[in-house]
Specification:
The structure is a homodimer.
Chain A: E1 2-6, H1 10-19, E2 24-28, H2 32-41, E3 43-46, E4 52-55, E5 58-60, E6 72-75, H3 82-88, E7 98-101, H4 108-112, E8 121-126, E9 129-134, E10 137-142, E11 146-150, H5 157-168, E12 173-175, H6 179-200, H7 206-209, H8 211-230, H9 239-249, H10 256-262, H11 273-283, H12 288-305
Parallel strand pairs in A: 1-2, 1-6, 2-5, 3-10, 6-7, 7-8, 11-12
Antiparallel strand pairs in A: 3-4, 8-11, 9-10
Helix pairs in contact in A: 6-8, 6-9, 6-10, 6-12, 8-9, 8-11, 11-12
Chain lengths: 307, 307
């Protein structure tokens, strides 16, 4: 299967490298320094054990350099780049090319569906953690399962085949009936962890170890769960507990939002806490904790990125 | 009049230097580097014009070095140090020594009154801005009036005499009937400005220029005003507007809380937004914006200070 990674950042490069053992993968990113480094010297992945592995992967920063049209495009650009990225690959997709989004935040499926037949969209989440330390150098930050499924119906054979490819590549993956539920679960976990760690510039572990961080993370999650429930999304588990367990399991990780701030980049706040605030407004609910967190991230973003 | 500045930090040193032209002032601080520098070379104040003036002031870090018992002790230690500082000067006060607190935050009068006859306490606020750039070197950051009065009744002659001394020293000062109202007004202004500027590490001007900062500052103030109203404190002015005007007038200032974070010091959050949250809890009100701001400052404090 020919796979194009659309957005070969920290997590895209990691998943691409893993999949390259079982399929024909091309990394695509507009981060020219990262791609050129991989073209010259390969991609280095520092594993959880500290061991460094080098992957020689086809990598491009210009779609003109793509040799074969992809069967599967895995969308891993930042949420706010989704529309631009998907529209940029319309010319190199085949009629039966599948799109799989494993992006952070909510609303990515809807953005992709502006351009792509929903029957061709798979969606889900991954709990893989990864950081782009420098061009060509990725650090694996924590392992967790990947879940995806079709957005228009029950999983088909092709979806199962792709999941099987992920599993063969060493990525623990499950096909799910309701990917939207998994996307919401991850959204809610991120609602508790990402903004607070980005604002206070702390590692994930603080969220369950520090009582002040824990208290607002918990309240942010409670607000998000109320919004989800009002939208008809029900969770069988206690999402506060789930969020705290994720914070614990990823204690030493720097959340993607904190990574963005450190790099002076725009964050995905609009698709995480900001999305909760927006849904809440439409529903007539109040989410002051998420509002405060969203605004603080926006201020810090403007400070580090400029307007 | 013999004046002891109890807590010669940024604002204490500034007020002490000004008062030294019209009274016998001693600066007292436990910041030994700052005091020793003043002892050796005098205190340098950089005025708003950029002009630098040197003041030769009696300065001590040990009360044993005090030559005369003070008539007036101006309390300008951090709110959380009040009890310890006041109890440390009990041995060097006369029966008729007055205490004047111009500290930030709420609750300082109550802390002083644990040791001192309330009839001997004057309280109020100052809008003077100042920063301790390095030991012995203060930068004047903005001018504004000082208000104080007796906490047990209408202003007496001695209070007016002290105010007159402030005015002669070039510090615009007014004697007020209800110092508590002025303390609350300043508290509410600080509730809007201090935590947000400390968390996002921004100058005061962002509070009125940046729409995200303005929005939460406004909501934090609205919560604080609700709490004050429920406690029977009424403001004739629109406190949101007042707070935004202060942010505008002090655009280039680094708030005291942001200064504390930059210096890796504990902040006065418990006496500002934290006090609003505490009063609200006692009154059965919700102040989620102030709660979030308080917790975020607490997290950052623990990060920079340690527990």
């Amino acid at each position: 299967m020919k796979v194009l990674i659309l957005g070969a950042g920290a997590i895209g490069s990691f998943i691409g490298a893993k999949l390259s053992s079982v399929s024909d993968v091309v990394l695509f990113s507009r981060n020219r320094a990262h791609i050129q480094k991989i073209q010259k010297e390969g991609l280095i992945i520092e594993e959880l054990t500290g061991e460094k592995k080098r992957f020689h992967l086809k990598s491009i920063f210009d779609l003109k350099d793509l040799e074969h049209l992809p069967d599967l495009i895995i969308v891993l650009v930042k949420s706010y780049d989704t529309e631009e990225a998907v529209s940029s690959v319309l010319s190199i997709k085949k009629e039966n090319t599948l799109f799989l989004t494993l992006q952070n935040g909510i609303g990515n499926v809807e953005k992709i569906a502006k351009f792509i037949d929903p029957n061709m969209i798979l969606a889900g989440t991954t709990a893989m953690g990864s950081a782009l330390i420098e061009p060509g150098y990725i650090k694996h930050g924590g392992s967790g399962p990947t879940y995806f499924g079709k957005i228009t119906g029950p999983p088909d054979e092709l979806t199962k085949e792709i999941a099987s490819m992920f599993n063969k590549a060493g990525l623990e993956t499950y096909v799910v009936e309701d990917p939207n539920l998994y996307i919401w679960k991850k959204l809610i976990i991120n609602t508790g962890i990402n903004a607070i760690t980005a604002i206070a510039q702390i590692k994930n572990g603080w969220i369950y170890k520090n009582r002040y961080a824990k208290e607002i993370a918990q309240k942010a999650v409670e607000e998000a769960v109320s919004v989800a429930n009002k939208m008809g999304i029900e969770f069988k588990e206690d999402m506060v507990e789930t969020m705290l367990n994720v914070a614990k399991a990823t204690s030493e990780n720097i959340s993607s939002m904190y990574q963005d701030i450190l790099k002076g980049k725009r964050t995905e706040i609009d698709a995480i806490n900001g999305a909760i605030v927006k849904f809440a407004k439409d529903l007539g609910l109040h989410t002051p904790i998420n509002q405060t967190l969203t605004n603080l991230v926006k201020i810090i973003e403007e400070k580090v990125v400029g307007k």
